[in-house]
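Teaching note: in complex prediction, the entire set of molecules is handled at once rather than each chain in isolation. The prompt given to students was simply: 'Predict the structure of this complex.' The entities are:
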Amino acid sequence: MATEAQAIAGDWGGGVHPYRVGHRKLGMWLFIMSDSLTFSALLIGYAYVRASNVWPTPFKFSPSIVFSSIMTLVLLSSSLTMVMAVSASSRGERSTARKWILATALLGLTFIVLHLIEWRHLIDEGLRPFQLPTEWSEKWPGSTPLFGATFFGITGMHMFHVFTGCLYLTIVAGRVNKLKHEDVEISGLYWHFVDLVWMFVFPMIYLLSIDATK
Amino acid sequence: MTEHAMDIHEHFAGTNRLFISVWIWLLLLTGFEVFLGYIHLPVIYMLVILMGASIVKAALIVAYFMHLRFERLNLILTIVPALVVCICLLLMFFPDSLRSRNLRYQGTTQPPAESH
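The expected output is the structure of the full assembly:
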């Protein structure tokens, strides 16, 4: 106990820099907190509607789940390239950092393109925010038409974050020589958060809606 | 960690090797989740296991990629407990959700039999 108390007291450091981060980084953490609550509310709203209704489970393992797994791989890899960018930036290698940041933005764009292909596919099947395709209604009688609303709402909100992140990263890459290392790190925080959200969206929206019928 | 890395603006701990191993763990956990989907586990097991794996993945991302493990304890204690409590409080709606499930049309052509 004593050592724990000493560790906490030692970590306090006189209260000059209570968090030992700059105000911009603290601001990004606060934004991430509020955005986490936004996504939590969306996902829990989805779970609420799903638990109180007959819910269609339309995603075939192949191609839907395979396709969304590839999207997950792309997003996870973009997190790795971002961490490499921050690492290069911390060593002062700005041009290397720029390349890694641009690679991250490119992977983000790839994710958006893949996601839009999937949206297009579902829209062609007849899925709308408040309407199911006819085959789905026949296969899962009495199922709620809110599937589309939750699917497009949650994945659309996430895609909007990825898109914003791509713009943000492109601007950071362009100004990397003028920016401080901490600014690159802050853009990394945002990007990893977008990846983190997908770690919940992917299992909740896709893996729990796999079509088990042959 | 070297001495000069303690400067507040240039502080960045962790090696590339560490980050790559975290990335591989994230891939393995994702692969495990997809595998569970492939073998069609009952949805309640899926829900519990997938949420568990997702929380582990989120923790890995926050701790290593977002660097929170290397930040001052003050920052961790400001961010994490408040979020966990708020998100857990949102779960209070579920009893109502499960209750209203029994009140809804269940897909049968006959009206549900009266039960008391």
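Point out the following to students. Residues 94-125 of chain A form the longest helix (32 residues). Chain A has a mean pLDDT of 92.
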